[in-house]
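Entry type: protein chain
Record version: 2
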Amino acid sequence: MRPLRRLSRTVQILRVAHKYRLGEFLGRKTPAAAQPRGARLRLALEELGPVFIKFGQALSTRPDILPPDVAEELARLQDRVPPFPGAEARAIVERELGRPVAELFEHFDETPLAAASIAQVHAARLRAPAAGAAAGDDQGLDVVVKVLRPGVEKQVERDLGLLHALAEFVERWHPAGPRLKPRAIVDEYERIVYDELDLMREGANCSQLRRNWLGSELIYHPLVFWDYTRPRVLVLERIDGISIRELDRLRAAGVDFKVLAERGVEIFFKQVFRDNFFHADMHPGNIFVDVSDPHRPSYLAVDFGIVGSLTASDQRYLAENFLAFFNRDYKRIAELHLESGWIPKGTRVEDFESAIRTVCEPIFNKPLKDISFGFFLLRLFQIARRFNYQVQPQLVLLQKTLFQVEGLGRQLYPELDLWKTAKPILEDWMWNRIGPGAQLARLRDQAPTLAETLPELATRALKILAQGPQPAVNEESALALRQEIRAANRRTLYAAAGATAWLGAILLYGLTAHSQPPQTVQILDAALVALGAGCWWRALRRGR
């Protein structure tokens, strides 16, 4: 039956493609259409359902693949579909939780608050306080109940199979296939979609974000009620705020849009670099505003099915790229791309540096309203393509979230200076990462290993020396002995040099702890820390 279902779905896709005259994307001549190609593609994806909608949304962040008119239209994809019957949602809740809804909730509204392709949300009120509720709250709490759409797992599995087949075809036969890595992109997208199908994972994402930001005045994340949560049902605290889409209501409440926009940028960069755990679906439908203090408004977030994180190396390379970009150090950007393997070895740094300067210089010192990240990235990818830039699938989510933050900032406060807001955050992150405090923490972690290794090696060397020359030792054994003794001496020397360098860094840091040190002092301090780290690393490795 599975091949028949796949064949049926393929026929449906071909019918929709013909309906919206999508042959144009394959280079075929088609009759003139009333709507532009981007709008027709968007409508076709919306008709094909959840997997294609979400894949189109992901592609909208890839200006290296799509023309700008198509990417802009796909960014408008709406993940809103007709709701399924409330009685069916009630039945799913009862089946998952093993109890009648009337026993679980004082009230359960069968009319959904919102419906999307993966799940829909219902308002409810807990019949009794759940774990985490305030003491003495006898009337329960207002919550939202998220219910997975019936049959969505089979539909996702079927459509992902087709996307994998298409990606394999493109990578094998399209000239740009190996560079664009379509199979890797679909693999990454598959992981994201399957994560969204597990509502317990979404609850865990929400809990992690809540812990990271609990007590912050910038953003609030709802409480998860785990006793009422299963893979197909998620129960969250219901938040009370104004949707970021309702600008008129926000203005009427006296909200300071400049503060709100700057706080949005701060949240994004701290989630990416401080926490390495970011909400990767920050479109306006998932963002609300707490206006209890309109001069210092805060965010309320919902829908945590998509989150992202980076490897330590990607995180550092991105931070250094951002800082080099803010400082107009185009040579460093080119060097970082080579070091990270994002462009092939052998590429002339000077040529890539010149190309980057051509893209970046025109956009500096402009407010956000005059800068289009879409156009900027498009130009950057067009130039990078000449240097065989390798697409990084693990960065797709980050690119998507950055686009969403840009759109949010442009909507709230067009004069926002994104660079001015983000640069201090990245500088603090880099300082905390390579500064003396971080190095001391690493030294503390390595101290037990060093304390055990160095005395043991020194003792072995002394014992060997005390034994004197051994007549049975052949030339090969003697050579090995001399090498071991030299290795022990080098390890001791490097350890002492590392300790001296770190002591100097600590003293320098202490002298400037109560003020922002000049850049030359920061460089000197960082150099001493790096020297100490290098010496200790050599002390651990020498002689092995």
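Comment: Residues 475-511 form the longest helix (37 residues).
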